[in-house]
Amino acid sequence: MRLEPISNAGPARKLLPPVLAILASFVVAAVLALVAGGDPFAVFGLIFKGAFGSKFALLETLNRATPLIFTGLAVAVAFRAKLWNIGAEAQFYAGAVVTAALGAGAIGLSSVFLLPILAITSALAGAFILLIPALLKTRFKVDEVVTTLLFNFIFLLFVSYLLEGPLKDPMGMGWPKSARLIPEARLPRIVEGLRLHWGFALALICAVALYVIDRKTTLGFEMRAVGQNVEAARFAGIPVTKVILKTALLSGGLAALGGFSEVAGLKGSLTLDLSPGFGYTGIVVAMLALLNPLGVVAAALFVAAIFVGADSMSRAIGVPTYLADIMLASALLMMVLAILFTKFRIRRD
Amino acid sequence: MQAFETDAGQGEPVLRMTGITKRFGAVTANEDVSFALQPGEVIALLGENGAGKTTLMNILFGQYAPDEGSVEVFGETLPRGNPRAALSAGVGMVHQHFTLAGNLTVWENIVLGTQPLGKLSLSPAAVRARITALAQKFHLKVDPNAKVGKLTVGERQRVEILKALYRKSRILILDEPTAVLTPQETDDLFATLREAVALGLSIIFISHKLHEVMAISHRVLVLRHGRLVAERAVTDTNREELAALMVGSEVTAPDIPAMPAGPALLSLRDVHATGLNGVTLDLPAGQITGLAGVSGNGQAALFDLISGLNPVRSGAFTILGQTPAHWTPRAALETGVGRIPEDRHTTGSIADFDLTENAILETYATKFSRKGWMNWGRARAATEHLIATYDVRCPGPQTRIRLLSGGNMQKLILGRVLEEAPKIILANQPVRGLDIGAVNYVHGRLAAARESGAAVLLISEDLEEIMTLSDRIHVISEGRLSPAFARGSVTVAELGKWMAGDGEGSHAA
Fold first, then answer.
1. Higher-confidence residue: B325 or B185?
2. What's the gap in Å between the CA of B334 and the closest CA on chain A?
3. pLDDT > 60? residue A1
């Protein structure tokens, strides 16, 4: 048997990977649910109910999806240009740190001014953090997978230092957390009385904006050209280095906006457990979305629903929440495998 | 063409390929190729890139199944398309790109794949002893315990040869073995090969370096356009004849009317750069300047230099009377240099982009966007115009370019270049792999551009193409140019001499 390239994949073949991947993850989860002593259909039913079954559940899912949309977009935009940003976690925290530092009373303005300032400075911080590995890549050909991945750990330790030192809340009874944001620095709720903040709307706006950039702007065209064939792009006079650096700024900024949204919208202060790996899960989200900005929204909702639903399911029948992690991991693996089959078909010799 | 018996070697042939034909779609890679290899004989397989050498060897080695014809090794017909059968029949191939694992030792690499699965009785000491014995026998100096990753290229090649010998190969195929070697290493390799031949092995040596072919082989087979066009004993031929045979000597009368040369639109004076050793060149307006030469002698370096991808290290570079300070692809495009690259698939186009996106790849910033926003409507209209004007056969501008045939892809690239009315046109192998219709079309368009006053640089390994189209011809060899020969003032044999690196007198200063 061998793999033979397919010259032209039809739309059905293109849509197959995410569908197959999600189906496969359900099959794996069903087996594991049986092993854990639960009825698979009951487990899936409870996950669904836990994620979408009530107004509260639905809002919880949307809240959980918000940071994943940001990190998913950050990863998607970078990966599309073949800039392998594995550091969305650090960029996410960079945004959170800036929001926590400037939003707790350091700047005394009304919300109308303060929130945009926090969003922009957060984004700049994230952009700057990815700019360094991007420069190392374009100048010295240093592999950005390594630099961005390792920088996650450095930055998390730095956040830990900040929370024990300069940013430590004097009223925090010794806990490593930052001071609470002033009310003017908090993202308001979209509808009064419903626990869903404007960060979610901002995430949707970013997804649409990225889609428009991709299809309608010169930068989007350049990013796609560089990502698909850097040699042809360079030959055609596309400024490859500049495009990679611009992509890095966009990607780092998007991840950092996630940190801003999470602190200003949901938590109100910075702690070390602000992100349970949103930066890494963003990679799963982006891959499930086939790096499509609008697909990222759908993929983030799917991933958030699995997590939120699994929590609730676990409380109800005692199948461990690890099931959610396994479902995601198997979905990602199946996705990578299934993508192969959009490009190749198996031939028997 | 039928193989004829040779006086080099004797007895039954160890290898016989008969009537081999292989087609890939409309392209015929090999057509009715027959030859026989005698024991103790070195055959050189000579031909330009794309002449069908590699395809033929891949058929011999079982990588491809031929459409017609058969392969016999030691009198046994090999099953079609089975690499294992070729290996076990005693055919060993040393690929141009080595297939070694850098983190393993030499002896581990050599036994890799020879051990039956599940058999654990491998004795490293015995293996090393056998390798050492083989290495001594064939003068292949290499330490069996060294890590392959730490070896030089020459040493790695020796490991590859040892690998074939360890598998008891009696026929060695070497694909461009000297391409990666220093002259000293090449001498060592040749010593080893002579030793192997003396011990009764047979060798097929693939190359387009004429002096090496003359030095090592008994017999030369020349392939052109997939056909075996000549077979010569090295004692009966010379480099000039081989060069002419390789590139084709049927030169037809030029059908391009002579035109007075205009001023030089581009001139290089003693330019040194990566791959170029003191090039002096003028591209006059209204003339096609042909650049002949065996591939890999600096053609790509010169193309890249004028394209803005290969920086000038020293020497004077003047274009349209100016010496540009910062020469990039974008600067080249803005100055009016149109470029048709050698590799239309990886350099000239983006496979998964549609025709519109490919058509505007060089002009999107200047013609199809405003303030950062693309004007796709105008881009699509321009592409439709291009498709109609340059006769690109395709379902429409939204087709992905990878689905087009080579000829139609080239027409789109040609159109992309010519629509900008460039003053200087670089065309590197513009018709390679195209069918006759597309070849004539591309040539006609280049000739028309010349008549409208453009300076054209035509780079080709096909002498026939060069001699038909060019007003003036340079030959490039080892990064240096011959003087310019006016149309009709030079013979194929003379060009062949320059291509072989020993033209009359010195190179143009």
1. B325
2. 10
3. no
Residues B295 and B433 in one domain: yes
**b/e map of A45-83 (b: 16 or more CB within 10 Å)?**
ebbbebbbeeeebbbbbbbbbbbbbbbbbbbbbbbbbeb
In a domain, B243, yes or no: no
Structural domain total, chain B: 3
Asked if A7's CB is within 8 angstroms of B369's CB, the reply is no
Check: CB of residue A98 under 8 Å from CB of residue A122: yes
pLDDT tens column, A37-54? 888 888 899 999 999 999
Which of B228, B190, B226, B229 shows the shortest CA–CA distance to B209?
Answer: B190
Please state the domain count of chain A: 1
Task: Please check whether residues B25 and B170 belong to one and the same domain.
Answer: yes
pLDDT for B298 beyond 50: yes
For A213, name the nearest residue in chain B, comparing CA atoms only.
Answer: B373
Q: Do the chains contact at B361 and A225, CB–CB below 8 Å?
A: yes
Structure tokens at B375: 């004007």
Q: Is the pLDDT of residue A314 over 90?
A: no
Q: Which one of B364, B401, B405 would you mutate to disrupt binding with A, by most A Cβ within 10 Å of its Cβ?
A: B364
Task: Grade residue B264 by pLDDT with cuts at 50, 70 and 90.
Answer: very high
Q: Are residues B413 and B428 in the same domain?
A: no
Q: What pLDDT, on a 0 to 100 scale, did the predictor assign at position B436?
A: 62
Check pLDDT > 60 for residue B507: no
Kindly determine whether residue A219 and residue B372, on different chains, have CB atoms separated by under 8 Å. yes
Q: Which of B365, B394, B421 is the last residue of a domain?
A: B421
- In A, minimum Cα distance to B65 occurs at A349
| B145 and B226 co-located in one domain | yes
Q: Does the pLDDT of residue B26 top 70, yes or no?
A: no
- B485 is a domain residue: yes
Answer whether A8 sits within 8 Å of B350, measured CB to CB. Answer: no
A132 part of a folded domain = yes
* Residues of the domain holding A256: 70-290
Same domain? For B190 and B100 the reply is: yes
* Chain B residues with beta carbon closer than 8 angstroms to that of A349: 81
Q: Is A349 on the interface with B (CB under 8 A)?
A: yes
User: Tens digit of pLDDT for each residue in A194-239?
Assistant: 889 999 999 999 999 999 999 999 999 999 999 999 999 999 999 9
**B286/B384 same-domain check:** no
Tell me if B3 is assigned to some domain.
no
- Inter-chain contacts counted by CB atoms under 8 A, chains A and B: 70
Helix ranges, chain A (H): 11-35, 40-52, 55-80, 88-102, 111-140, 144-164, 198-216, 218-228, 230-235, 240-261, 278-288, 293-317, 322-343
Give the range of the structural domain holding residue B439, as residue numbers without chain letter: 253-336+422-509
Question: Which residues are CB-neighbours of B491 under 8 A, at least 6 positions away?
Answer: none
> Within a domain: residue A88?
yes
Model pLDDT for residues B162-177, shown as the tens digit of each residue: 988 888 889 999 988 8
Q: Cβ distance A309 to A50 under 8 Å? A: yes
With 90 as the cut, is the pLDDT of residue B96 above it?
no
Structure token digits, residue B418? 């010519």
Amino acid occupying residue A39: D
CATH number of the domain to which B450 belongs: 3.40.50.300
